[in-house]
Amino acid sequence: MKGRGLRAYALVYLLFLYAPILLLPIFAFNSGTIIAFPLKSFTTEWFGQMWGNASLRRALTNSLTIAVSASILATCLGIFAARASTRFEFPGKGPIMGLIMLPLVLPEIIVSISLLVVLLSLGVKLSILTVILGHTLICMPYATVILSTAFNSLDRSLEEAAYDLGETRISAFRLVILPLVMPGIISSLLMSFTISLDEFIIAFFLAGNEPTLPTYIFSQLRFPKQIPMIMALGTVLVIMSILLLTIAEYFRRRGIAKTGAKNTGGFL
């Protein structure tokens, strides 16, 4: 009886959580301009409007530029942080790692306002670059966690064997360690890309006059005639996010299997 109650609770919870997402494709293919039941006829008109919208294409280009740049920067910094935290002991290690993870627990609006005040006080003009810096800051903790798992899974005897065979620290890292943690690096890139692409608050404060995809969607919600096109765009974004997270989880599990470590849970 208790098991049935728990399953019913889990079902209701998942339905409440994901029902709005499931409604996106339903209304994206509905010919009606009002988001309400009953539905009218099937159409792909809103997807055509989406691809033909010049402002949307500009916002998408900006978001892709920001997401690619932030994911690469966050992953590179995450590699250094994960390597240092898993391989070496040094003074202040705990506080330093806590500082890196701080954006995970701080409200994004606090981070955004703080960055805005600092950048304006330094005379930095708000642009795509400032959004990249902000997104790198919030993506780095996720990248560090993923890469720390990958580095912790390594067999240190392989690194020591490379030293015994005459490799330097740099060449051993490049030829032995990086290939072994490459699934974790790919997973970190994809996860950071997804987080940056979907992020709104930091982009809203730091983008200046350059629109990103989330800020563009927010600006269009004031116009009822644009809602069906936004539904179509939301459908594409949900599919893209699920695909990227699935690929990231695949590479994470592949890395675990490659190193022989235990699976301690993942993103999906």
Explain the overall architecture:
Helix 1 (2-28) packs across helix 11. This protein has one domain: MetI-like fold. It is mostly helical and 268 residues long. The chain contains 11 helices and no strands. It is 75% helix and 0% strand. The chain is globular. The protein starts with a helix and ends in a 9-residue tail after the last helix.
Question: What descriptors fit this protein?
Answer:
268 residues; mainly alpha; MetI-like fold; 11 helices
List the topology elements:
Blueprint: H1 2-28, H2 45-51, H3 54-87, H4 93-101, H5 108-121, H6 128-152, H7 156-164, H8 169-198, H9 201-206, H10 213-220, H11 227-259
InterPro entries: Bact_Polyamine_Transport, MetI-like, MetI-like_sf
GO biological process, one term: transmembrane transport
Membrane topology: Multi-pass membrane protein
Short overview:
Helix content is 75%, strand content 0%.
Low-confidence stretches: none
Q: Would you state the CATH class?
A: Mainly Alpha
End-to-end Cα distance, whole Å, is: 28 Å
Summarize the main sheet: none
CATH topology: MetI-like fold
* Number of contiguous helices: 11
